[in-house]
Amino acid sequence: MADLSTDCGGIKSPNPFWVASGPPANTAYQVMRAFDAGWGGAVWKTIGEPIVNTSSRYGGVDLGTSRVMGFNNIELISDRPVEDNLREIAEVKKRWPRNAVVASLMVESKREVWHEIVKRAEGAGADGLELNFGCPHGMSERGMGSAVGQVPEYTKLIVSWVKEVARTPVLVKLTPNISDVTYIGAAAAEGGADGISLINTINSIMGIDLDTLAPRPIVDGKSSHGGYCGPAVKPIALNMVSAVAKHPKIGIPISGIGGIATWQDAAEFVLLGASSVQVCTAIMHYGFRIVEDMVDGLANWMDDRGFATLADVRGKSLPRVTDWGELNLNFKVVAEIHREKCIGCHLCYVACEDGAHQSIRLLKTNGATGKVPEIIEEKCVGCNLCMLVCPVPGCITMETVETGRAPMSWRAYQEALGKGIACELPGERHPH
Amino acid sequence: MSGARVPAESTLRGALSVKHVAPKLDDAVYERNFADINPRLPETAAVAEASRCLFCYDAPCIKACPTEIDIPSFIKKIVTGNLRGSARTILEANVLGHSCARVCPVEALCEGACVLNQEHKRPVMIGALQRVATDHVLDRGIRVLKAGAPNRRRVALVGAGPASFGCAAELARLGYACRIYEKRTVPGGLNTHGIAAYKMRARDALREVELVRSLGVEIRDGVEVGRQVSVEQLRGESDALFLGIGLGATERLRLPGEDLPGVVDALGFIDRIKNEPFRRVDVGRTVVVIGAGNTSVDAATQAKRLGAENVLVVYRRGPEDVPAYHYEHELAKSDGVTYVYYAAPVRFLGEGALEAIECLRTEVVADGAGRRAVRPVQGSAFHIPCDMAIVAVGQQKAVDWLTRVFPGIALEDGRLKLDGSGRTSLGGVYAGGDCVNGGKEVVNAVAEGKAAARAIDLDLGQPRAEA
Predict the structure, then answer these.
(1) Angle A263-271/A234-246 helices, nearest 10 degrees?
(2) Which residue of B has its CA nearest to A391?
(3) CATH number among 1.10.1060.10, 1.10.3720.10, 3.30.750.24, 3.40.50.2300, domain B43-140
């Protein structure tokens, strides 16, 4: 069986699945339940400055009958005393020495205050530290969380303060609420961080109650922007993880976070460079038990694919993430409708007709389904839309078409033109 | 349909003179036996079910609906919580959308056409969802249909059943003043007087009558055209005439003993169940239903639910020939109704009241034209002892009334002959429903009424007053 053990910036765990810093990692009771269920590590809910929470804190976005496709919160860091959290960290470490316990920290931006909390957390037995520079609400109004993580200089400065005293690995958790996450990632690396955790939650308003006109989650008739997470944010997280992983000035391990709910999600983060993955919303939805299939499924997939260790998987897809200008414009696919699977909903037809390139026609048949859709190949640009909206798996596939032309990207074309080499404009010309 | 002549006399006499009346049941048991066979879908379940709809473009379910309700749109509105808009989408296309939700043979229509069937999945429960939306507005008295600005044209309609309602609702929305004449004292046609009570109670049908009235349609009940009011009067007071008279009484078997007390007709029996307290409707301990169509199922299952101990259906062909819808046939069997196939009654026997039916075995043989003819087997006579016989062998055509009241009107096989768009052979006279199609579903009657309304609007050349 595949070896799932991992080392993320010096923090070791029996598998890459960590409970992310948040409500599920609030107490020793929860963290031990998590380890019982099979989680490899846990990042404790952020400890630091005293806070008070609001009543009503979470909001959800549903899709059809699927609940909580997106989730947000306006909860702050731990509202428990620092000493209680540290005592419980020690207790957990005593009982679960092989599992990773990471202390998430957030304090006032003062050197001596950071020194003190780092020493106390390490004194309790934490295997590593995660600096919360990402919390987008509440704490940022007090000059902490994303208020630090949005300014490269602050990030670098505080990381360097922490590194002055830290004896365990230091991860820096980044906010996505910034134009280019690699600036902050590079600053953290320059400050001496041992790894990067991303993404924290995204600024969001979950919706408006159309009866009371109050935004959600509602606190006495009002709301505040909160942190968005859950399955809906995964593509954003994948993009940011790959950007950090590819950045030449960062080069430190990554703990991937953002909408991870299954082993497939985890595999994707690892393929884009993550050494561990952190999960919160899916646990809040279904409980710690979800890790069983995450571990089992990931190991089975690795066995099937011949990956012996996580290191074999890590970053495997990164070379395939490239700039648009590098994409081969002479590559061509066209849609193919497998008529024997077509149920006659005609969603492909209307999507293409109104939303794309008018490349599907409806043919009359004598069959039970009435008209059947047919691709007009010479007009099909290979956009995928029909395949994406088709409700029947495998009914519409995208088939590669031989163009007979050598690969040519926009960048290569521009370079050729710059050198005065005559060459044909790449890509297909479609009738409209 | 609605204009049907009711054989009230024979029905009442027969039903009250059953030799052995089945014991009466507790009221709670009656209510349970006649409770909605398809209970209302809770709104949360409705949203989940509605979410299964793919929102097909050019959807096959719409084409399978005779009234062409925009089904994907009304279902999408249930998903978004816009139940009022959902009901409007339904009722604008079909003013009897509520009863159709209850009584349509959806397996044969919209749900049968649902594309999910092609993927071997359960089709969307279109009928149940349609009921959720229409219940929402009917329960709350929300008016989603509006009459058009009056265009000073008048239309008289004969028969207050689904065909006339479909026609009048369409016309009223275009601004026509509509007046419906109904021979019976309670309007609604078969929805009120026919159709098993466990599918729809008379009170549900009357909610829809009120919906039609809310469009300004006037209903004059207890007025028979050709008797209390003449066709000349109708022609004088209106610009067009619509006939939605339905069919006549149940066909007679013309067998000896048919007039014995205890021999009743199915429509009269069903009407009493719909419009009287269950306790007041006598039913025999052993009941034999003659015929195996959908009306036979309604009669047999309701006889059973009223407390009959044995209910048998005598049918001259085999199980594969049963004309009732498959699910109706299955319902009867699951209600404990026994089918006696390949048998035909030859006489009703009894002293003063029905005691037995003499039947002959039948066999089905191919005739020269390739059809399978039924032939009695000589010497195969047998008796079925019973207290009550219910004749359910189809309805008579309203030929007598039509030829008397509209001399010269073109008929075909006893049904009104139309030009394909709702026009009869007489100028200014239109028709739809069972009197034209020979007996179909509520939804067909509404669709034909709508089609006639469009023909009327076209023929009267009324410049449209903007609603």
Answers:
(1) 30
(2) B54
(3) 1.10.1060.10
**Whether A369 contacts chain B with CB within 8 A:** yes
ipTM value: 0.83
Q: Do A346 and B56 touch (CB under 8 A)?
A: yes
CB of B115 within 8 Å of a chain A CB? The answer is yes
CB distance B95 to B169 below 8 Å: yes
Does this model's pTM top 0.95? My answer is no
Determine which of B118, B121, B124 to mutate to test the interface with A (most A C-beta atoms within 10 Å): B118
CA distance A301 to A416: 43
B106-126 residues labelled b (16+ CB within 10 A) or e (exposed)? beebbbebbbbbbbeeebbbb
Domains of chain A: 6-320 (3.20.20.70), 326-418 (3.30.70.20)
**Measured between alpha carbons, how far is A378 from A359 in angstroms, rounded to an integer?**
8
Find the radius of gyration of the CA atoms of chain A: 25
The tokens 């039609």 sit on which residue?
A: B212
Q: Is the Cβ pair B58, A346 closer than 8 Å?
A: yes
The model's pLDDT over A231-286, given as tens digits with 9 standing for 90+, comes to: 999 999 999 999 999 999 999 999 999 999 999 999 999 999 999 999 999 999 99
Clarify whether A135 is annotated catalytic: yes
Chain B residue at shortest CA distance from A340: B118
Find which of A67, A209, A338, A343 to mutate to test the B interface (most B CBs within 10 Å of its CB): A343
For residue B449, the number of C-alpha atoms closer than 13 Å in the C-beta half-sphere is 37
Q: Using an 8 Å Cβ cutoff, are B389 and B290 in contact?
A: yes
CB atoms A349 and B57 under 8 Å = yes
Average pLDDT rounded to a whole number, residues A311-333: 97
Nearest to A321 by CA among A272, A392, A267: A272
Q: Which of A135, A280, A342, A386 is catalytic?
A: A135
H/E run at residue A238: helix A234-246
Please give the backbone phi and psi of residue A62, each rounded to the nearest 5 degrees, phi first. Answer: -100, 155
Report the distance separating Cα B55 and Cα B423, nearest Å: 36
Task: Kindly report the number of other CB atoms within 10 A of residue B13's CB atom.
Answer: 15
- Taking an 8 Å cut-off on Cβ atoms, the answer to whether A369 and B79 are in contact is no
Q: Which residue among B47, B57, B119 places its CB closest to the CB of A347?
A: B57
Residue B392, pLDDT > 70, answer yes
The answer to whether the CB atoms of B54 and A345 lie below 8 A apart is yes
Of B48, B60, B119, the CB nearest to A392: B119
Distance, CA of A306 to chain centre: 25
**Residue B56 touches partner A, C-beta closer than 8 Å:** yes
Spatial contact of A245 and A270, defined as CB atoms under 8 Å apart: no
Query: A220 and A195 in contact (C-beta within 8 Å)?
Result: no
Chain A residues 144-173 within an 8 A CB cutoff of chain B: none
Give DSSP secondary structure letters for A70-131.
Answer: EEEE---S--S-HHHHHHHHHHHHHH-TTSEEEEEEE--S-HHHHHHHHHHHHHTT-SEEEE
Count of Cβ atoms closer than 10 Å to residue A103 Cβ = 28
- pLDDT for B462 equals 58
Q: In angstroms, rounded to a whole number, what is the distance separating the alpha carbons of residues A319 and B142? A: 62
CA B154/CA B235 separation, integer angstroms: 10
Residues in chain B: 467
A344–B118 C-beta distance less than 8 A: yes
Ramachandran region, residue A129 (left: φ > 0; alpha: ψ -120 to 50; beta: rest): beta
Chain B residues within an 8 Å CB radius of A347: 54-57
pLDDT (0 to 100) of residue B12: 41
User: Which superfamily does B8-35+250-391 belong to?
Assistant: FAD/NAD(P)-binding domain (3.50.50.60)
